Structure prediction request, 328 residues.
Amino acid sequence: MQSDNSRPGRRIAIVDAGRRPAVIEAVLKAFAPQYQWIRCAPEEADYVFHSGMGYEVLKCPGIRIFVTGENVSPDFNISDYAIAFDPIAFGDRYCRLPLFRLYDDAYACLTAPRPPAEEVAATKRGFCAYVMSNVRDSADERVRLFDAVSRYRQVDSGGRWRNNVGGPVEDKLAFQQRYKFVLAIENSSTPGYLTEKFAEAAQANAVPIYWGDPRVADTFNPRAFINCADFESPEALARHVAEIDQDDARYLDMLREPWFRDGIEPADLRREHFEAFLANIFDQPLQQAYRRNRSRWGLKTERRLYDMAFRPWSHLVRRFRERRRRAG
Prediction:
């Protein structure tokens, strides 16, 4: 790595990302190590990273880069660029980043050759594991899937939710490695929303039972996991799990399959893909890097959002006057 003195400096700030902007920091560390980040006040920064936890970014004149680890879509009226989950294309302004790409150890397992299936199977002592500690704000499908599979055989729950192993486990990976299957259930189902849950099940060399991104098979090899979207009901899913559980040959076949289709890391998940996206932002002249509409209608849109966030009475007065004009 270059020394700080030899790396080009970029003046940045982070807003609207909570007290611990872990995802933004991880993106900078993983995909832009060639820059020296000069932290400064948001209104003085040339580049402002922001997320979905407020509207302080509207006070920042610099180039705005939206980054999220949650199921939230970017607003390109506000942001010049965005890094999020949505499977969309928007010129050089957008880059899809599934959250699992930031989990280095888990991702390394996805790209490495699978270990010998027989050796993996010999380490499995339990049927199915699940670790979930978010006891609220989660999809109802979690309950239905957990209950359906549990009616066949007990699913050992090592998180705070429905714990049945004597308390929350300290080491999620070590816990999941003992099981043939792992429930990998997202908090919601939206195309492209693919977090660390699948990758952590894969890291445990278990067969993931996955629910969430309906397009997950575009990323991962469908022969290596059980996709809940392929079944008409949780009961049908549970019957399929039972069939695999009771058929050693079929289970071993799944353990032999590469995680990615054809065993090839997708081009849009490779490090150079993300490095190129960020380099395009930081290496062009500053004034040429702006993308958001900073003319009349762009400014009017921002002003409305600003008033809603910081001057709600002004916003209400404007809305009242607009309604009066339409009524008159």
Summary: The CA atoms of residues 158 and 170 lie 9 Å apart. The chain has two domains: 9-98+270-327, 114-257.
